[in-house]
Structure prediction request, 252 residues.
Amino acid sequence: MKKTAFVLTAVLAAVLLIQCQQPQNTLAAPEFSQQLAKLDNEQLIDVRTPEEYAGGHIEGAVNIDFYGEAFDNAISQLDKTRPVYVYCKVGGRSAKAAASMRTKGFTQVVELQGGFDAWNNANFPVSVSNTPATPKPADGKGNEVVVDKPFPKSVYLEEVRKDRYTLVDFAAGWCGPCRILAPRIDQVQKEMNNGFTLMKVDADRDTEICDSLRITALPTLVFYKNGKQLWRHTGLLEKSSLDQMIRESMTN
Prediction:
């Protein structure tokens, strides 16, 4: 009898040890928050709709709509070597998103148990900001055009018709792929010594311009030379691909 009890205790201890050694794929809101506070390289993904995201989200989260057409493309742009933290409203969509990411080779995917509702009910900080993800002031050299109020179509046309190359970035603060693409654009512009002017258009605010140019999906990039459109691209781009497209346009 004592031997049997000893064996059962040993088995139970082994099971608990294995469980402790395995990474946790789902964390309750307090533990999820603690992990975010510790890590400076996390990729925090909100897989709800843009409307849900705009109504309140975890600070720093990138919105990639699980049911959006760009989901797979946007997820493929994330770094598989870094941890990914994902959440939705109550956990259903995030579980599916996490499963999809794991099949794509992501090894550190952590889900928020109970989703954003659990986070909100625990009274953790919520952000409702819907401003563009990477707003920057003009640098004084004419290499970046950013406005703080609605952008009239007449001003837009005046800017792109200037004697220069101009890249227009149509984006929105809630758009996850836009936030992934923005630093790549900035890096290409920097490496090219500001060889082109970057114009940022807020698709939520500047609807007149978007409607007139038939911008129906984000992010969309439009590249001009002296007012003539050389190319348009919708969706994410690798930095190397963007760099090549711009350089080829400026040399042809």
